[in-house]
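hiii, so i know i said id send this last week but things got crazy w the move. better late than never?? heres the sequnce for the chain we talked about at the cafe, plus the structure i predicted for it. fair warning i was half asleep when i ran it
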Amino acid sequence: MEKKKIIKLGKKLYKKNLTIATSGNLSIKTDKGILITTSGSSLGNLDEKDVVLIDFEGNEQENKKASSEKMLHVEIYKQRPEIRSIIHTHPVYLTSFAACHKTLKEPIMSENILYFEEIPVAEYAMPSSKKLVENTVKYLKDKDVVMMANHGAIAIADTIEKAFAKLETAEYYAHVSLNTIFLGGAKMLSDKDINDLIELKKGLS
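okay and structure toks below
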């Protein structure tokens, strides 16, 4: 069942232009370990051979090579035990902000207050490196979406569907933010508007 969810979400990410070629990786935590996409697989063209089970230390439990970012997934699950799904991709607009090292935090729409308040940028490190894991995981202690400098973005949730919704909403926020720059700058929500949204958020949680 979980493998099919990963395959379905991979195709959905590709159709929504949230991933390209062989970039990105997905995982779901199970009682037996972590199901994660294999190294070099295309999220838009996954089948069951492209998903491998690793243990909670990152060791492959099948004769398949897991994504090179597997330790990032392992450390996130250790730090946030309530999280059961992770999506890491390179969406155009979030990656553009990540390449500029620009945090997304301006209160220009209700969604970013209700869902994020701020989407930070983790400091750059070589892909698949231990330093990348350290730089990214520290921001995910209290955030569910983080951009990775000159790299991409990562979204986490208790289900893969919710992680997808967070990533898609974050990409929309980044897209709108970029458009407002071209249009001369957004008009920010007032402090009262923000406080009202925060109270609404409390009521929804």
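btw The chain has one domain: 2-204. thought thatd interest u
miss u guys!!
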